[in-house]
Design a protein that fits this description.
Strand 8 and strand 9 form a beta hairpin. A nine-stranded antiparallel β-sheet has the order 3-4-5-6-7-1-2-8-9. The protein has one domain. It is built from three helices and nine strands, in the order αββαβββββββα. 24% of the residues lie in helices and 42% in strands.
Length: 177
């Protein structure tokens, strides 16, 4: 899959995760997680993430703030180890409704399925994410590291602070490192 397709897939997933993550999901067990995501259009991506409690809390706080700002409706129900979220959000000027079902123990595995559609029932998409804990992070990994399908590693915590992604051009007026 090309870099553009992966970026678009991650954007679609990110929108769904933003709607879901503000629900104060349980923290994932610290270590290396394999996260496989597929959307109804047949695209899929598999990444690995090195996480700890602070990484999860930071990502949930960021996603929760975005969903509160962009979502006019948000109903969360929790039954056992299943969380169901129904939301209506405005993204890039377009309204989307989403129904998310998240289940699992978050220490060995979890699954998240998000079904969303645009205004008037158009553009329905289903995004399914399955994740499993692989073990401790490798010695050369730190919390926040995400290993993309092509082997490229980027750190989401550093990106939130404004550091460029590996291979990205430096900002104008900023020397390349």
């Amino acid at each position: 899959m090309g870099r553009i397709a992966v970026a678009l897939l991650l954007l679609v997933v990110g929108v769904g995760v933003a709607a879901a993550a503000g629900a104060e999901l349980p923290a994932r067990k610290a270590g290396l997680w394999q996260v496989d995501t597929a959307i109804s259009a047949g695209k899929s991506v598999s990444i690995k993430k090195c996480v700890d409690a602070q990484t999860d809390q930071t990502m949930q706080t960021s996603a929760g703030a975005a969903s509160q700002r962009d979502c006019s409706k948000r109903e969360v129900q929790k039954t056992g180890d299943t969380i169901t979220i129904d939301s209506v959000c405005t993204i890039a000027g377009k309204t989307r409704t989403a129904h998310a079902v998240i289940s699992g123990d978050f220490s060995s595995a979890y699954t998240m399925t998000i079904t969303s559609q645009g205004d008037g029932g158009t553009g329905q998409r289903t995004v399914t994410t399955t994740a499993k804990w692989l073990g401790p992070c490798a010695a050369d990994q730190k919390p926040g590291d995400t290993i993309m399908p092509n082997g490229m590693k980027m750190n989401v915590l550093e990106m939130q602070k404004g550091a460029p992604a590996p291979g990205a051009p430096a900002a104008s007026g900023t020397p390349a490192q």
